[in-house]
Design a protein that fits this description.
Number of domains: 3
Distance between the termini: 69 Å
Order of helices and strands: HHHEEEHEEHHHEHEEHEEHEE
Helix content: 55-70%
Radius of gyration: 51 Å
CATH architecture of the largest domain: 2-Layer Sandwich
Largest sheet: 5 strands, antiparallel
CATH superfamily of the largest domain: Histidine kinase-like ATPase, C-terminal domain
Bound molecules: adenosine-5'-diphosphate, magnesium ion
Strand content: 15-25%
Strand order of the largest sheet: 2-1-5-4-3
Mean pLDDT: 91
CATH class of the largest domain: Alpha Beta
CATH topology of the largest domain: Heat Shock Protein 90
Low-confidence stretches: none
Number of helices: 10
Shape: rod-shaped
Number of strands: 12
Length: about 450
Amino acid sequence: MRPADLWRHSSFRLALGVTLAVLGALILAGAVGYTVLHRQLADRQDARLREIFTTFQQSDAADQQDLIEAIAARIKASPNQSSVYLLRDAAGKVLVANINDVSVPAGWSTVEAATLGVPTDYPYRIFAGELHGDYLVIGLSNADLDDLAEIILTGFGWAAVAVLVAAIAAGGWIASRLQRRLNAVTETLARVASGDLSTRLAVSKRGDDLDVISGEINQTLSRLGALVEAMRQVSADIAHELRTPLNRLRIHIEGAALNAASGASVDDDLAAAIQQSEAIDQTFSALLRIAQIEAGARREKFAPVDVAALMASVGEVYADVAEDAGHTLRADITDAAWVMGDRELLTQAVANLIENAIRHCPPGTQITCAVRASRTEVTASVTDTGPGIPEAERDLVLRRLYRLEKSRTTMGTGLGLSLVKAVADLHGAEICLVDAAPGLRVELKFPRIIGVS
Ligand SMILES: Nc1ncnc2c1ncn2[C@@H]1O[C@H](COP(=O)(O)OP(=O)(O)O)[C@@H](O)[C@H]1O
Ligand SMILES: [Mg+2]
């Protein structure tokens, strides 16, 4: 990875952020350390000055000569003038000193070395006052105190440089490691973008955040793959199944053309062609309606619906149709059973089931509409005593346009059960096709809503 690229990586920026925070903390620690140390040292220096002054104070008051000698001894012991002394008598005459004859106020003060006539850059801490009739000035160099700032700055400065170098190195290392893994993710996603939905991201055993994200992406890819496969299947089915009606339409039109050429009537051919195109139109409308239901927008219009009352009224509507077809239709409905749903779609679904029983069963079939409610579930079912659907085809008939071989000539689009399934899915209901021995029972199991009875 080029150093210029480093900045683009969040891991590196994070490492740098942490480094800056550490640096800030170091500077703060340095400042606090300096202040505390400086105050401590200054206090000690003052204590030493006061101690020296007190020592002179406690010496014999009468013997000025002894005092001068004691000071001279101290001056001798400090050849580099780290401590300075000046003793002046009442007349203003300097008795002993290793500094200029400066006038310093009594008490504490800080005086520049140049004023004292000492060849150094550091100022002096001074204490002055009356002593047995004379005036004594004593001072200590601030060299240690002033050097402290430099010592601390140098120490913390080197530590800061070390931390910075270590953080940049660690940040770079982490960023390049992470980059390798991210590159793998990017490459996989590029393969997905180019249409390969079967590819998956590598998930390590570490289980870190990148693994979690990779796992999520893999699951999404699986779902996406299944969806795309289902879509592909549906479009292939639709394309395949629509060829037959389109071929029929073409045959009618060709028939009309032939008849027209020979001067015969084309009325029958055109009527048949119109009927065929209407059937195709119906198929497309039904396909669109199923797609709309699957899109789920109608869920917003959901309201409590009493499935028992709904089933009873649809049964009533179809009673005469069933009777005309030679069937008997009866309702086996007891108490109200409420679910959250779309009344119009539920009516359509139940109607489709009753129509199927009427259409696909021979005369003399018994059709029963039933609604049962348990504590958590409402089961609506339509049962007939007809030929039923072979077990192997019970899932297939839920697919768009799928019809049993023997029903090819019966009226219908092969979309009735697909719509029932779409409505069931929209309502969170389970659809089951079971053998009613003999016959077929289609059950819709809805989650029951509590609070409405
Ligand atoms: N009650 C039933 N008894 C027997 N077969 C049925 C029944 N209901 C549906 N089928 C079979 O399932 C197929 C699909 O049903 P459906 O999707 O409603 O399409 P359509 O009724 O338009 O043919 C039907 O063509 C028929 O073969
Ligand atoms: Mg049908």
